[in-house]
Design a protein that fits this description.
By secondary structure, the chain is mostly helical. The chain has five helices and no strands. The chain starts with a helix and ends in an 8-residue tail after the last helix.
Length: 115
């Protein structure tokens, strides 16, 4: 399977699970920052990738790439994040992109991308 096919399948998974427009998902999209997939949604995405591609999840450190969702019943945190994206503290210590997911699927196991 080539990178383009994997990218398209990841986009379709994200669309079907979270309703995001596949045309707005690029290989450079950051999963948490750009697509706002974090917490339980991120777990669902990774579980789906593990099930579909039989990739090894053991080396992946979830807390390094995804912050906690927290309690936000009115969506205020989400709204502030959208408005002041660069002014609000980053939710996780590292960024995970679609390209990182593609590389993970190709290798079959997780390798931290270079900083």
């Amino acid at each position: 399977m080539n990178k383009e096919n994997i990218a398209n399948e990841i986009k379709e998974i994200i669309h079907s699970k979270f309703g995001l427009d596949t045309n707005e998902i690029t290989e450079d999209c950051r999963i948490e920052e750009d697509l706002d997939i974090t917490g339980v949604q991120a777990e669902i995405l990774l579980e789906t990738l593990v099930d579909n591609y039989k990739i090894d999840l053991s080396g992946f450190k979830f807390a390094r790439y995804f912050g906690e969702e927290g309690f936000d019943p009115l969506g205020i945190r989400f709204l502030l994040h959208k408005i002041f994206r660069k002014l609000i503290t980053k939710r996780s210590s590292h960024e995970l992109t679609i390209v990182d997911l593609i590389n993970w699927i190709e290798r079959g196991h997780w390798v931290d991308p270079p900083s």
